[in-house]
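Preliminary data (for renewal application), adenosine monophosphate complex.
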Amino acid sequence: MGNLSPKQAHSNRPMKPTLLTEPAEFQAWCLSQKREGKRIGLVPTMGALHDGHLSLIDACAPHCDLKTVSIFVNPSQFGPQEDYEKYPRALDSDLEKLTLRNVDVVFAPETSAMYPDGCTTLVQPPAIASVLEGAMRPGHFQGVVTVVLKLLNLSLADVAVFGQKDYQQLAVIRQMVADLNVATRIIGAPIVREADGLAMSSRNRYLSAEERPAALALSQSLQEVTELFQSGCRDGRELAASLMQVLIDGGVDTADYAVIADAQSLEIVDTITQPAVALVAAHVGQTRLIDNCLLQS
Ligand code: AMP
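Predicted structure:
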């Protein structure tokens, strides 16, 4: 309590997180805390926070003494035709949400601070990045692993939490961290959904009321494939065909993929004999959505 003003000491109101925008400042703060023996937790995000993001902070909390959240819309993971410019930015309301979660530090750098002139090093993503999202979005995972490695180096985090919503991203990051001997422990957290089943996403706000029913086709396809799996079907092609049929019947505009893959390697599975994952990606109007669910006995 020594550092608190009398007002803070007598107030139950949560304190606003400290907002840092300079990478060197964030690193210096994390380093000084680590030297005092504190365990740092990091939740990397692109902001426009929803309950899915906030669940990652809850998952992080038991593993750290200090909770940090990064908010950075990383240009290097967006393709030229993608939504970088119009991606939602909502720092003020994000800070309010993070205050209620008792986050200690928010790191929200400018693009020029993360990628100053002359910063040209890029991390080559692991092989698992070449399929699915990597095939549909060339360069995406190179941008992801580059920024995540920078964030892990800045924060010196003991633990970092990522959502299973981006299943392949989590797998790619785990592999990168293993391959490059990064000391941070990576934790995956379950998908948080809206009441109607739609996986929460900052991009859901792009959906019009008319588009929303078609967006539900993604979670419905996973629901149906889970039922098929539970009724005994182990044929990967039959399960994938069911996913695609529900997407089409549900009215998505285009489906990028609908597959059954090995949960570890992400290789397409003919017959499920070990944990698998159903993964779907589809466009509804201008919005690209992804979703997935594990299939295991
Ligand atoms: P983003 O801001 O979209 O880059 O996401 C930041 C982190 O939040 C990533 O680790 C995502 O996988 C995770 N995330 C996004 N949506 C959800 C969700 N609905 N449930 C759980 N985690 C999520």
